């Protein structure tokens, strides 16, 4: 029986224009897993206020990071999938949860090619109901409508996998070898409403574990690093500490140089390139900081490729 790997990432607007961003935000923020408010309350607000008001400003942010081949999230995800296909010697398909390269087309195409054993790897190292669970829901929704279903293995998370910890720690080590160490390393993860954590989402705990394991692998002391959360959305309380607040405070505490790494992002995207590498640098320097560096995501590096191979092969063994 033929095997294949399906990598799934979040998805991104088709173009850095208000129109394309509006369409993307409607689909993404219209997902109940992302915003679990009553539809009758949320959809009019999303369609009537949030998407129209937010789109022009977010499109401008995308324009600042757009690459010749497209949105960084799509470009790096595609390159990673292509390299994995070459190295692993089996079909690897990339799909997106929202927007172009939809999951349904990808799954149907693999089945048409005779694939009967499918390893699904959402490109989210830490599980959350807003990301991983939404991919699972969509996958099973697609399979539920098919006459024949493949065996499938679903990688719910890899937050403490030694190959993941080593890939991230190794890339930080490489960076420091070339450019020297900072006074403090910030490990910044995408935020989530605090309420999700209270309701049992394991995301926060997994971020804490990943951060601790990465710091341990680097041999860092407690004062050398800090876990923070970025990309807050809306007025509710999100996971703390907020990255922006820490960056404002650190210079007052005598910390002049920081490096920021985002281990929860498999590839660079709007939230790392525009927010962390762009806006937050200005915030730190304005607050009196001296040197601010962003350490890139794993992207299509050999380290990321090795990690993906390990994850793909482990799952295949179980299915064999
Ligand atoms: C309720 C809102 C949001 C939740 C919850 C959320 C969780 C979440 N998101 C990621 C990863 C990414 N998010 C990205 C962009 C993005 N996220 C939100 C909102 C929520 N995210 C919005 C509205 C946007 C779009 C930009 C904006 O309008 O500010 C991206 C980048 C996409 C890209 O095209 O580059 C990623 C990646 C995780 C991991 C997560 C929960 C853990
Ligand atoms: Fe997000
Ligand atoms: Fe953002």
TrEMBL record:
Gene name, per UniProt, is hemH
- Is Iron there in the keyword field? yes
Q: Supply the SUPFAM superfamilies for this chain.
A: Chelatase
PROSITE patterns on file:
FERROCHELATASE (PS00534)
Q: What is its main location?
A: cytoplasm
Q: Spell out the protein name for this chain.
A: Ferrochelatase
Keyword vocabulary terms for this entry:
Cytoplasm, Heme biosynthesis, Iron, Lyase, Metal-binding, Porphyrin biosynthesis
The pathway it acts in is: Porphyrin-containing compound metabolism; protoheme biosynthesis; protoheme from protoporphyrin-IX: step 1/1
EC number(s) given by UniProt: 4.98.1.1
Q: Report the source organism.
A: Methylomarinovum tepidoasis
- Cytoplasm listed as a keyword: yes
